[in-house]
Amino acid sequence: MFRAAKALGVPERSLEVDAKRMKNIFAVRNQTIHEIDIHLDAKDKQARKRRSRTIDGMNDDADCLLRVGRRVIGAAEENLRGWRG
Fold first, then answer.
1. How far is CA 35 from CA 14, 25, 47, 48, in A?
2. How far apart are CA 69 and CA 75, in angstroms?
3. DSSP state letters, 15-81
4. Tell me, what's the pLDDT at 24?
5. Mean pLDDT over residues 4-30, rounded?
6. pTM surpassing 0.85?
7. Which of 5, 7, 37, 50 has the most C-beta neighbours closer than 10 Å?
8. Is there a contact between 72 and 1 (Cβ–Cβ < 8 Å)?
9. pLDDT per residue over 35-84, tens digit each?
């Protein structure tokens, strides 16, 4: 997220985001993606184990990412308007 913002000329401070929270959200996202690759036919029951997450927690994380995404897009749009002169 921060690298994308930087590439668009958006300063990190303008995102108003907690870097630790972003790291945690993306860690959960990566875990979730790997859990989708579950093998339901696995003989070992542990191969089918998934982490339990609350809907509210997942919604809060998704809302946070959407807010940051809107800030990145808005700031990038402002940068582009400035380039038009």
1. 33, 15, 10, 8
2. 10
3. G---HHHHHHHHHHHHHHHHHHT--TT-SSGGGG------HHHHHHHHHHHHHHHHHHHHHHHHHHH
4. 94
5. 90
6. no
7. 5
8. yes
9. 776 666 666 666 556 677 889 999 999 999 999 999 999 999 998 888 76
Nearest to 29 by CA among 60, 67, 58, 71: 58
Return the closest-CA partner of residue 15 out of 25, 1, 27: 1
CB contact at 8 A, 35 and 50: yes
CB of 61 within 8 A of CB of 30? no
End-to-end CA distance of the chain: 28
**Residue 74 and residue 70: Cα distance in Å, rounded?**
6
Three-state DSSP class for residue 9 = coil
Query: Which residues 6+ apart lie within 8 Å of 72 measured at CB?
Result: 1, 4, 5, 8, 10, 15
